[in-house]
Design brief:
This protein has 87 residues and is mainly α. It contains 5 helices and no strands.
Amino acid sequence: MKIALLFAGQGAQTVGMGKDLAAASPAAAALFAQADAQLGYSLSNLAFEGPAEELTKTAVFQPALYVHGLACLAAIRERLPNFTVAA
């Protein structure tokens, strides 16, 4: 069986996205922290707490969705170390 992953795109962002995931997964939390450090602002705070007006700006939601997708994959691999994807 082959598995393909699809990640959310523009319009899928919502305040609170990734908050529960980061709380439950150290790997996901680490990715959000790494993004915060690389970007020079708290992307995690904007994703977790908003405000929605900031999160819907292209310069914010694009990296937020990207990091959220990677955090989802990291959380899966944290629990299923042999998890592989074909696409």
